[in-house]
Amino acid sequence: MRCSRAWRSDWPSETIPSRVSMEINNEVLKSMKKGLAFQGYNGRISSMDFHSKATNYLVTASDDESIRLYDTQNALCLKTINSKKYGVELVCFTDNPGIVLYSSKNGWDESLRLLSLNDNRFLRYFKGHLDRVVCISFCSEKENFLSGSIDRTVLLWDQRAEKSQGLLRVQGRPAVSYDDQGMVFAVAYGGHIRMFDARKFEKGPFEIFSVGNDDSEAHVIKFSSDGRRILVTTKAGRVHVLDSFHGSSIASYNVKPVVTNSTLEASFSPDGNHIISGSGDGSVYAWNVRSGKVARWGSTDNEPPLVRWAPGSLMFVTGSSELSCWVPDLSKLGSFTVTK
Q1: Which of 39, 53, 127, 193 could form a disulfide with 209 if both were Cys (CB 3.0 to 4.6 A apart)?
Q2: Where are the WD repeats (predicted)?
């Protein structure tokens, strides 16, 4: 199926290099601009995910009930699959870039579905939640994943089995995330982060960290790629960064609060030293974890865009009514060597 796109770029040969010999610093981040925009959505993008290993692959879910697979390195929309019967809200890759997991958005079936993108075939259904699923985290090193719901449960799954492998009860909307090694996972709600050993989660959290005095609804929690830092976003428009070993606060940033049912997202850069986030007024912010605000890109939108930094790349993407890829503006930077 076709995907319309607009293409603007400063890269040589009109392509996005997967690796460049330039570190991510404040100057590079300030220069970022939209280099590529995929359009043609009939609704807002509700979820997106890069594959952890085949990092040029990006999958999106949209309010128009579509799941779209992209090759961002070659600026291609590879496939569009429609989920008219069940709808789609959240989507994420499994360890196989040809298989995704997604949640429904039809109001009557909260099952999760394992879908083969190659032949548009369901491989498995995961039933357990009684209300809307608001977060999914897949363990990149194993075949396990977590799901959290406004039914106040977090379920632990093995993608090879239809029944959940464990259940955690929470007091509020949860946000969940595995670390990159799959040994630890975090659950955020009610102003606290609870850290679990994935091998013995039934014993309860081994650490509980406070997120300052912010007890508003948690939206997203993520580990940096080295596992040393955690970020948490909240409905109140706060982006918190903590030390994942000690729970100490490293930084806290403010953006416009979220006044709709949208999600405030944030994402670490590959080195974990910078953060990008959406904002309730539609803007995109960038911070240096050590020194603070670096840049802000305004918008005429009034809902927070989704944000994801491409793993191991000098590119991040935003999702609203279109999918935009942001790259450094070379005209504002000194010379560098592109590594093919």
Answers
A1: 193
A2: 38-80, 126-158, 267-297
